[in-house]
């Protein structure tokens, strides 16, 4: 597995109007973090992002050409975005449900209606990659207005039968 360019553990990771390109590792990774990527481009890296037990918001993010021409498919997982949740999340709510309501309610607009909000991928493009565009392994995710094209395996992969993904398929373009 490759190392990430950006990493957060039990913190906050924010990327706005930025580009991550031509890096040997993953663009980003986290463990138990609040992650926000907005108006950004991720291209020619091993994996777009790998986020474990994190609340992730992607808005207007383009993930293109993963892993890139200079790397071989299979060096890493080569997903555009990989979201996972711990197995105990079936019986125990995610860690962020213990935060005070004002901790990130402005950061995630659905918090008022839902004390355990889902990660959200919206208005984004996943174009051309070596594995899955979006691989969801136990995470709860809402996907709205996402364009997925030319991925070697699945456009949207639900890797764990123990969990589910909340999607609005009427807004998913595959």
The SSE string, one letter per element, is: EEEEEEEEEEEEEEE
Task: Supply the number of helical segments.
Answer: 0
**Any low-confidence stretches, pLDDT <50, length ≥5?**
162-174
Beta-strand percentage? 35-45%
Relative helix content: under 10%
Could you give a short account of the major beta sheet?
9 strands, parallel
> How many angstroms does the end-to-end distance come to?
28 Å
**Could you tell me the number of beta strands?**
15
Q: What gross morphology would you assign?
A: globular
Rg, rounded, reads 15 Å
Quote the average pLDDT: 81
Q: Pairing-aware structural class of the strands and helices?
A: mainly beta
Task: Give structural notes.
The protein is 0% helix and 45% strand. The protein has no helices and 15 strands. Strands 2, 3, 5, 7, 9, 10, 12, 13 and 15 form a nine-stranded parallel sheet that branches.
Blueprint of the fold:
Blueprint: E1 4-9, E2 12-16, E3 19-21, E4 26-31, E5 34-43, E6 49-52, E7 55-66, E8 81-84, E9 119-122, E10 125-129, E11 134-137, E12 141-144, E13 146-151, E14 156-158, E15 172-173
Parallel strand pairs: 1-4, 2-5, 3-5, 4-6, 5-7, 6-8, 7-9, 7-10, 8-11, 9-12, 10-13, 11-14, 13-15
